[in-house]
Every structure is written in C-alpha cells, then in structure tokens.
Amino acid sequence: MRLNGDLYRNCAKCTTESMRLIIYTGKGGTGKTVISCSTAIKLAEKKYNTLIISSDPAHTLNDAFQLHSTITRNRNDNNAIDVFPCLQVLQIDPTLEMNTRYHEVISYIASMFSSKGIDEVLAYEIAMMPGMIQLFSLLKVEEVIRLRSHDVVVLDMPASGEALRYLYFPKLVGKIGNRVTSLLGAFSGFTEIFQAFSGISIPNKILRYEKDLFNSLNQLSDIIKDNSITTLRLVANPDSFSIENAKRAFMAASLYGINTDLAVINKILPYEYNGVELNEFYTNWTKFQHAKVSEAKSNFYPLPIREVPLHSTELAGIEMLRANADIIFGDDDPSKIFYTGKLYSVIDQPPKNLKISVRVPFTQKQDYDIKRLGSEVIIKLDSPTGYLVNVIPLPTITFDMKMIGTRLRNNTLNVLFERRDL
To answer: Does residue 43 contact residue 154 with C-beta atoms inside 8 Å?
Structure first.
C-alpha cells in the first residue's frame, strides 16, 4: 500500500516503536464508528500516518466522513481513500476481497460441497463461513503493519457480541496450521497418497496458499497480543444493556490476553443545553444516565473512562468529528496507551480448581456481598453513595463448576471455583 507523497510528506516517519493498532468495539448503535473516526482525525492532526479500517457492509466510514467524488482515490490501492494529509480510509469490501485475493480457495471449498450434491449457489454461501468479513479486515491489518505503511491503524470492529472471538481466532488457526504444515513437510508424499484413497484432489497451489495464510495468521496473532502495539477500546452508552455488553467484551479481552486501555461512555444527556434546563422527562433520563456513568466508573475500575455528551445534531463530517475528538481526548495523544493491566484474570489451579480475580476499588471485607446466578457472579458493594452492583460475566469453563468461596486482598476479589465430580 503506497501513500500519496504530496499528502504524506510532512507526516511522522513510521518506526517500530511508534506503530500502534487501536481497536474499537461496542454494541450496535453506541457510536463506535464516530468515535473511531474522531480518533483517526486527532491522530492525523498530530502528524501520524493514520489508516482507519472498517469492514461494516453498510460503508459507514463514507457516511461519517461525508466522502464525495472530490476526495482523491489512491490509484495504487483500489480501497484506500485519502481524506486529508496523514489520514486514509479503508473500507473493506468482502466481495472484492474474496474475488481478488481468496477466489481460488473459496471456489475450491465450494466445489467440494458441490461435489457432494449441494446446490452451487448454496455451496458458495456455505464456503463464505461466518467471520470471514472480520477475518478479511484483520488480515488487512497484518498486511499494513508488515509493510510499515502507517504509524497508527484504527480498526472499527463490526457491531457483534462475537467480535472479540475473531481477535483470538488467528492464534487458534495458526497453531493448527503449524501442525498441519509440519506434518505435510514430514510426510512429503502423504498428500498424493491421501488423494488417491479419498478421491479428493487438493491442488498444490491451494496447499501453498494455506501455508502462507497460516503464517499471516500467526503474525497477526503476535501483533494483537503485543500490548505495546495493540489496545482495545470499549464504546458504550449510559444504559444497562450497552454497559453489560462492554463488560463482556472486557472479560473476553482479558481471557484472550488483549490489553484494554480505555472505555468511552458516549451519548450522555446533559443536565442543561445552552443554559436552558431540560423538562422533567429529559431530567429523569439525565439522572438515570449519569447514575449509569458512575456505575460504569466503578465497574471498569481502574480502566480510564472518557465521557462524551449527546450532541444536538448528527455527528457527520470532518469538522464535527474533529470537535468530538477534542471532547474525547483534549490535549492527549490518542496513540498513547492509557492503561496496561487486567480487570479480570482467570487462573487455572489444577487438577480441580479455578480462580477468577476481579479488581474492586476501596473495598473492605464487610462492604460486599457476592452470589452466583447462572453464568454470572453478582457483586454488591456498599459505597458512600449507596449500593453498587457489579455483574461479572463468567467464562464458559465455569458453567459446570461450583463456586466454593471468595477472598479479598489488596483491592482484588478472588472468586474460587471447583470442578464438579463426574
């Protein structure tokens, strides 16, 4: 991916130390695309070569930046668009990616299904497995970082409760791929023998492609789990459903070893606007939302929280996104890693036990009550402003375990689980 020399001549030079990947995730409708775009603008204005990537089929980046035909397209990359100096937009088109880079593999998989009597149209639909769009965008990130074409990549993840799983997917597939390619190397004639007995022909070109893909996935996994490069940022609205979704994303990131450095609570109703107090209906909503913000600060402690008010009009266009960026970051550099650490830690204690550690601020033993309810642990904290309730989502491994006790030490609550006897 080459850059327009005139647009990028005054941008900061890309170095290993300065390369960053910032991933925004959140429930649909929270405004994460706007937050992602605002972050990208702030980075570009600080002279970082910035690329914002989205794989949202709705092409929301075009809407957010209000890109029109006057925007210069980079002739060397039919996806990247130059917005202004130091900022490019890359809208992943999954159909285009499939046709230009993955056509042979998808066609081969589809032909295998067709050979079993499945309708050709349906075979292609099955070959495009769930998560392929997310995988395309992640592989594009690996390419950009490998080529050192930008200093910072901002990734606007698709709105999905499963989005975080795709950040771990490269590591899983990469491990499997290494074993497969190792076996193929050890038994050079195995493929031909297998094809003769199975009747399934595996083209050598496909095997070579798979090896390259596994290598890319391994590289991508190393990038995502490198806390000096990659950080996850949560976007939520001040309501229960959105905050619970963000907490689950936070737990998943901790499990996968991905550092979360910031949470943004977006679209908060102000108590007044331009000096005019709101009527009773909006005042009640405002009080509710600000209570949720206070709850989120406690729930996400010690993660930094940025608060963004609900604007009086739709956020679209560079000027409004720039103003929004100033609200989020002020004079701070958005490429900064704002926090390193884990709110949740899951520690296996073989052969039967598991420990989940949760950071709880300013808590004494007599201040909390804890109980398990299905797939969640509910912690009730007694604070100076009243009771706060934190709902901790549990990892799948605990579903057949029983909670056997809790311990509080150094503002960390340890919840102990034991495997049930079969």
So the answer is: yes
> What is the per-residue pLDDT for 198?
43
Torsion of the alpha carbons at 108, 111, 113 and 114, rounded to the nearest 10: 170
pLDDT in tens, 61-116: 888 898 764 344 444 444 678 898 999 998 877 667 666 776 777 777 777 777 77
Q: What is the pLDDT of residues 190-219, one digit of tens each?
A: 444 444 444 555 566 666 666 777 777 778
> Distance between CA atoms of 71 and 297, rounded to whole angstroms?
40
Cα distance from N-terminal residue to C-terminal residue, the chain = 56
Tokens 């940022």 belong to: 233
- pTM for this entry: 0.76
Maximum Cα interatomic distance, the chain, rounded to a whole number of Å:
80
User: Whole-angstrom Cα distance, residue 77 to residue 75?
Assistant: 6
Tokens of 214: 């596994």
pLDDT per position as a tens digit, 37-60 = 999 999 999 999 999 998 766 667
Q: Residue 218 carries which DSSP code?
A: H
| Token pair for 274 | 């331009």
Cα dihedral 16, 46, 335, 31, rounded to 10, equals -140
DSSP lists the bridge partners of residue 381 as 368, 388
Asked if 155 and 232 count as a contact pair (C-beta separation under 8 A), the reply is no
CB atoms within 10 A of CB 191: 14
Cα gap 24→28, rounded to integer Å? 12
| Enclosing H/E stretch for 221 | helix 204-225
Q: Which helix (H) or strand (E) holds 319?
A: helix 318-329
Pairing of strands 152-156, 50-54: parallel
Integer Cα distance of 42 and 322 in angstroms: 7
Strand (E) or helix (H) holding 290: helix 280-299
Residue 252: per-residue pLDDT: 73
Give 142-147 contacts, CB < 8 A, sequence gap 24+. 142/216, 142/217, 142/219, 142/220, 142/223, 143/1, 143/216, 144/1, 144/51, 144/53, 145/19, 145/21, 145/223, 145/229, 146/219, 147/1
158 three-class SS: coil
